[in-house]
Amino acid sequence: MTRRRRVYEGKAKVLFEGPEPGTLVQYFKDDATAFNGVKKSTVTGKGVLNNRISEHLMSRIGEMGIPNHFIRRLNMREQLIKEVEIIPVEVIVRNVAAGSICTRLGLTEGQPMPRTLVEYCFKSDDLNDPLVSEEHITAFGWASSQELDEIMSMTLRINDFLCGLFTAIGIRLIDFKLEFGRYFDGDEMQIILADEISPDNCRLWDIATNEKLDKDRFRRDLGGVEDAYQEVAKRLGIMPEGGPNDLKGSNSMQ
Predict the structure, then answer these.
(1) What pTM does this model have?
(2) Does the pLDDT of residue 101 top 60, yes or no?
């Protein structure tokens, strides 16, 4: 296979140029990071599981009419996606208090939010992704008011859908992060969902026990990270074909 040009490498994924113009190949790594890359490790099979989980959730979201970058899964660790111009704003959706908001606002972890709360962060590792307002976003030209309206509308629909999907399999969606981008097709531009949706960027708790089934197990040294990700995949009905024995997958990159 021809070795493709590496376009970008993040903490959990690598992007390569795609086989056709306007496409990229997204490779999911086993690397685990927390606290903006300060804490690092490797979780065997995490990339395989996140590839499958994100494929499933992006496909389901697409079926409900929300455009996203996912085209198809290529293999255990890679998927073909649309190339987008990423908007440098992370969208944080909070249904239950957890993580940084508890420290910032003195909330108790597990406390239900009065209503779904949507926060924005400027996407910058160097600045530790600081919280920003709509005023910052529009003033600095990261996105227009119209684009933010579209993003908010899609975000709330995604939250409603994912809350229902996870509740049906005994999981509470505590909070999650979304990224959006501009997809150009000729002279047409469309705001679409990008990045991934997986236990790496969602907080997922078992409804009955409040057991954490997400990256907080790594952040807080709780152990059982791989088991938690596997449990999410099992409940979604998408464990890799060979089950746990298949999780290593190919470690070769383009």
Answers:
(1) 0.92
(2) yes
